[in-house]
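Team,

Forwarding the record for the chain on the shared tracking sheet. I've put the sequence and predicted structure together so nobody has to dig through attachments.
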Amino acid sequence: METTLSKDVQEKLDMINWDSLKDKYGISRDTFYNNPHLASQLVYGQMTDLVFASKEDFSGLLSLRANMDTSGEKPEMKVKVFTMEKPKTMADTLYLYRQPITSEKVKEALLERGEWTGPDGKKAYGYLNVNGGRPIAINIDGRKQQFLVSIHQPTNRVVGMSLDSVRSFFFDKDNNLRDRGMYGVPFTAEQANALIEGKAVIHSGQRKDGESFTCCIQFDAARREPAISHPSWFKEAQRAGMDMAPKQKQEEKAAQQQKTSQEQSQKKSGGLKK
């Protein structure tokens, strides 16, 4: 985790009207200037982890998100504040931009909960899927647009990100794959296209101790980046002892096995007299 602010983050933080946030919510600039993780979340369009806010008529936890506004005389980072909502259930109607999410499969995927074992070996419980598993259509300014939807767990809010924006995360305007990845391993174009559609992809990484591991990744619309997910099918496959390495890793493993087999065959045949 970062311990100091990057130049880009610092410059964007300086474009926020901190006096206004202090007057309205009692949120100090030091909360972010002294916390590089929170600062990066804020200036890069993510909903932040919860921060404490306090005024005479209000006291509680809030999440903030900043976006660049270029409509004025000079660019400014405008901050929007989000309060916490109650946890969602299947009995609730879920909304995105005040429009109901009508897909039951998306709703089920968003709200599915369960238990898993983390990289540290500890048990955890929570949402199994990072997003709804597929895009949904939402009317924006009279035009249907496709969105991925996720639940921002700190606030229990439903958050959407357009597929165009998700695609821009992985591909540039010339459709070239950007250098995106996790745990030091870049995503392939096949993985990127699957993530854009809300699917879970299998990804390999390496821990700090050098041990390799395999996990599932989905795109988180609330965090605006890929994140680890724990779909039921992945856990069941792991229990069954199936090889869940990414396709590329499986092909490399098969090629290595074939090479070893050929070398062993050559050694055996080399000892035979003609």
